[in-house]
Amino acid sequence: MINTKVKIAGVEFKNPVTVASGTFGHGEEFADLVDINRLGAVTTKGVANIPWEGNPTPRIAEVYGGMLNAIGLQNPGVDTFIERDLKFLKEKDTKIIVNVCGRSVEDYIETVERLSDEDVDMFEINISCPNVSHGGIAFGTNVDSVSEITKQMKAHSKKPIIMKLSPNVTDITEIARAAEAAGSDALSLINTITGMKIDINKRCFAIANRTGGMSGPAIKPIALRMVYQVANAVKVPIIGMGGIATFEDAVEFMLAGATMVSVGTANFFNPNASIEVAEGIEKYLENNGFKDVNEIIGLVK
Hints:
The protein is 29% helix and 20% strand. It has eight helices and 16 strands.
């Protein structure tokens, strides 16, 4: 038998595959298409302390090798999440990682405190959100801001926390080290890369927000490079993501140093991608003589 279990901050996952926040709803939306029980974890769409309406439409545009989105983290708020979405997820045989978003440190604290006594396993903190208290600059683009939000999350959370890093920075390792030093139990990366598309026939921006986050297969080489850099700069576990569509993609990320992988945009064009990735990783291990998935983590130096 091949061991596919991995452990992050004391939480054991049956396999190293989850789904990227915002690409899988809260799980129920994909329940008729995917056997959620076969996933290592479900990572929820972003949850805030109060409902967010999100950005005006259009909010999604297809681009070469992926997509742009500027959803604006639309969500029903933490109370509805607990009453409706978490109730559904708790019935599944998988771990629950709740993605938390906010516009101020106080927003994050309120959501984390509200969820800390619920049956969830970890929090993934989305620090690509604009910090309204500091001119709208994303929390995750400044070392001091990353350090402060991480310390606050650790102080108020009863669950392990994963800081989700933005690639829209000068040095990803500097941000990663700041999060680790402030107490983050793990890191996930990368979030989307800022991009733009113009409709030449309508002569206007393809999405109402003008810019959006680019995701999908085209960003994989960038994401892989950043995961490798961070894996060699910190000691905490990493959840790697960014363009993963096949088990080969996932194995690359694990060889580069990721303990887990997250399937995102691929869910839109292949709803069963996450299951195929999990099965493919196990087959890869078998075909290459590995008995334990942990043997391949960071194998390429």
